[in-house]
């Protein structure tokens, strides 16, 4: 019982952070730009390249959700989809950032 409470509290925090990330991503997409931040600074992409970055971020969230589903069910298909969606989404973000800065 104690593990369920601890895991549930952890998942509540994760759900809040993921929800906030999705909200900010959709807000940026509606405004026509994308913002990517790291410890080196913030990169803002405007124009068609921002679509790639925003789709990539949403794809990374979907990849994360499929990994969570894999942890609960242990189905190999979910693990494969997590890896595939994560690779495609990471590529979209990278391509969008490179094209946006060129």
Please sum up the structure shown.
This protein is mainly alpha-helical. It has one domain (2-101). 80% of the residues lie in helices and 12% in strands.
Model description:
Strand 1 and strand 2 form a beta hairpin. The chain has helices at residues 2-31, 48-73, 76-101; strands spanning 33-38, 41-46. It is globular and about 50 Å long. The mean pLDDT is 90. It has one domain (2-101). With 102 residues, it is mainly α. The protein has a two-stranded antiparallel ribbon. The longest helix is centred in the N-terminal third of the chain and has 30 residues, at 2-31.
Task: Describe the SSE topology.
Layout (H helix, E strand, L loop, with lengths): L1 H30 L1 E6 L2 E6 L1 H26 L2 H26 L1
Antiparallel strand pairs: 1-2
Distinctive features:
single chain, 102 residues, mainly alpha, two-stranded antiparallel ribbon, 12% strand
Shape, please? globular
Low-pLDDT parts are: none
Query: How large is the radius of gyration?
Result: 16 Å
Tally of domains: 1
How many distinct helices?
Answer: 3
Helix and strand succession? HEEHH
State the separation between the terminal residues, measured CA to CA. Answer: 54 Å
Helix content: over 70%
As laid out across the biggest beta sheet, the strand order is 1-2
Strand tally: 2
Structural class: mainly alpha
Question: Sheet bearing the most strands, described?
Answer: 2 strands, antiparallel
Mean pLDDT over the residues: 90
Percent of residues in β-strands: 5-15%
